[in-house]
Amino acid sequence: MATALCTLILPKVVQSNRGISRTRAVLTRDAKMKVPYEVKQGQSRLFHKLPSGLNMEVLFQKGLQPDEEEKRTCTKNPPLVFVHGSFHAAWCWAEHWLPFFSQNGYDCYALSLLGQGETDSPAAAVAGTLQTHALDIADFIHKEIKLPPVLLGHSFGGLIVQYYIANTREAVKGSDSEKKSLFPNLSGAALVCSVPPSGNSGLVWRYLFSKPLAAFKVTRSLAAKAFQTSLPLCKETFFSEGMEDQLVARYQQLMTESSRMPLFDLRKLNASLPVPRLEDPAFKVLIVGAKDDFIVDIEGLDETGRFYGVPTVCIDGVAHDIMIDCSWRKGAQSILSWLNDLK
Fold it and tell me: Which segment, 163-172, 219-228, 259-268, is predicted with the most confidence on average?
């Protein structure tokens, strides 16, 4: 299996995407995850070369094409670009949401940030900053995506998306033409169980005062990485009670293998927050949370909604890892309804 995954074969369908053929330069690589994620039927593993020379893993699934009658009446759907959070990689979107959205006509690209999944690691103690991660995403969009995409970010990936869209809107105002080229325009953004604009410090303090046991568990699970060795703690942190232990164990292994280095230096990150405020009321932002989220509480979700001046969507019966939880379809359907209204 590992040998098969180390050989990159690009299907014909991918060749039609602008610039994507440049990833042909990366044909053989050693798998970085000890148990590599095997892509599903219809998906491709690509590698986008960043300006730094490092290669970013991209899992791609092309949207189902409409028939001739539908082509005459519908507009082209924007591509979807998915950004994961800590301890995850592109695979977390490929399990359910890439097949779901591609079946509904959306080209889907899931990225693995530096030091995560099969993406190369920088020569540093941490993978990057809000700015460097956002610039890597922007480079991919600029070189590989034709239409302005919708950017979707989960957890800390949502914070990266918030930084991206703030800089995109500044550029649109014409204040910095060079910045405009660095942060290509978007059709919209979806923040999924996202860390709020002020970071995770408010979440931590609320837990300490109102839920001290939960605060201890979250700290032990994430900061001490105990979720990697304790199946019950992994389940409580990321998934619903109804999630099968067999699936939790599989995702636990993938999360452990995915994150070779921290996404951020959290102290430096929190010192740089909040992210800049989005001033353009016309820009479309969807904020989706999970009622049973053990990491981002309802107040954190509402903070993000107030920041962007939009109502939030809180989904019952689903936990933090909304895209791979047992009720993953609930979140996907909510986002699909919003996407269809963008047309």
Answer: 259-268
Q: Six-digit token pair at 110?
A: 């899931």
**10 in any annotated domain:** no
Q: Contact at 8 Å (CB) between 149 and 187?
A: yes
Is the link from the previous residue into 148 a cis peptide, with omega within 30 of 0?
no
8 Å CB contact between 145 and 81 = yes
Q: 67 pLDDT band (50/70/90 cuts)?
A: low
Tokens 């039609």 correspond to: 16
- Residue 250 in domain: no
Sheet holding 55-61, edge to edge: 43-49, 55-61, 108-111, 80-83, 150-154, 188-192, 285-290, 313-315
Task: Give the domain range for residue 136.
Answer: 43-171+180-201+261-342
The CATH number of the domain holding residue 67 is 3.40.50.1820
Prediction pTM value = 0.88
CA 46 to chain centre: 16
Of 134, 179, 144, whose CA–CA distance to 272 is shortest? 134
| Residue keyed to tokens 């939960």 | 214
DSSP string, 175-202: S-HHHHHHS---SEEEEESPPPTT-SHH
